[in-house]
Design brief:
The chain has about 240 residues and is of the alpha+beta class. It has a domain of about 35 residues. About 30% of the residues lie in helices and about 10% in strands. Strands 2-1-3 form a three-stranded antiparallel β-sheet, with no helix packed on it. The longest helix has 22 residues. It is flat and about 65 Å long.
Length: about 240
């Protein structure tokens, strides 16, 4: 695949194109190639239980629930396998836990404050889930301050945080104000990008080549997808980059 998409000028609208109905399922399947799939043998076939997505947070522990209820024979050995393409993951250790689930009490909390870079309270912005966003650049942070509920005897406190929003895969991507967060179709998105940015037309050949590649590997076996995407496209691109 050629590499003619100018990420700084075009990546923001290309990402929106890839999230339209025309592309989304194919693109999700396409990028899942680099994920680590966790599968359980049910006696007849391998059943997917979860996945670990590739990214920068991999030196951590991951918990994948396993549904042993699907086993055809409860007395047989449990067989779990990890599937991914070669060289993307290094696994230090694997454990399986059969202990009883501990009682859990969940209480949803709303923050009292949301301090942007320790200065401005952006709570009114992030509470509006429909139209408003806080734009964050590299180095920015938001400190969320919550009221601490009483802790019952014998319990330990833990937390999870639910977030909404979006990010650009290229931190240098430049947005254009003509396109807000409204849902648009594939052709409408491309048409508006071409109208607003003259150079956007230069990205179309690579976008269409990507679409052709995604179509060719959609729902294909892992080995076929790895050959067509990694061996035939990614590795030659890496070699060209090294030579340049």
């Amino acid at each position: 695949m050629n590499h003619g998409i100018n990420g700084r000028k075009n990546l923001w609208w290309v990402e929106k194109v890839l999230n339209t109905r025309f592309f989304k399922s194919k693109f999700t399947d396409f990028v899942s190639l680099v994920d680590l799939k966790v599968e359980l043998w049910d006696g007849k076939e391998w059943r997917e239980q979860g996945e670990v997505k590739a990214g920068m947070v991999l030196p951590e522990e991951f918990l994948i629930p396993i549904d042993t209820g699907i086993l055809k024979n409860s007395s047989e050995k449990i067989k779990v396998r990890f599937r991914t393409i070669t060289g993307f993951f290094e696994i230090d250790q694997v454990h399986i836990d059969f202990s009883e689930n501990e009682p859990v009490k969940v209480k949803e909390l709303k923050p009292d404050k949301a301090l942007f870079n320790e200065k401005k309270d952006v709570l009114p912005v992030i509470e509006d889930l429909n139209n408003k966003r806080v734009k964050m650049l590299v180095g920015d942070k938001i400190d969320l301050v919550y009221p601490a509920p009483d802790l019952a005897e014998g319990y330990e406190r833990g937390f999870t945080v639910a977030l909404t929003g979006y990010y650009h895969t290229d931190v240098h991507a430049r947005e254009n104000p003509f396109m807000k967060n409204e849902e648009r179709g594939f052709l409408e998105t491309v048409k508006e990008a071409l109208t607003a940015i003259i150079d956007a037309v230069k990205a179309l050949p690579d976008l269409f080549r990507m679409n052709s590649l995604m179509n060719s590997v959609y729902d294909a076996p892992l080995e076929e997808r790895a050959e067509k995407v990694i061996i035939n496209n990614v590795l030659p691109w890496v070699d060209r980059e090294k030579q340049e």
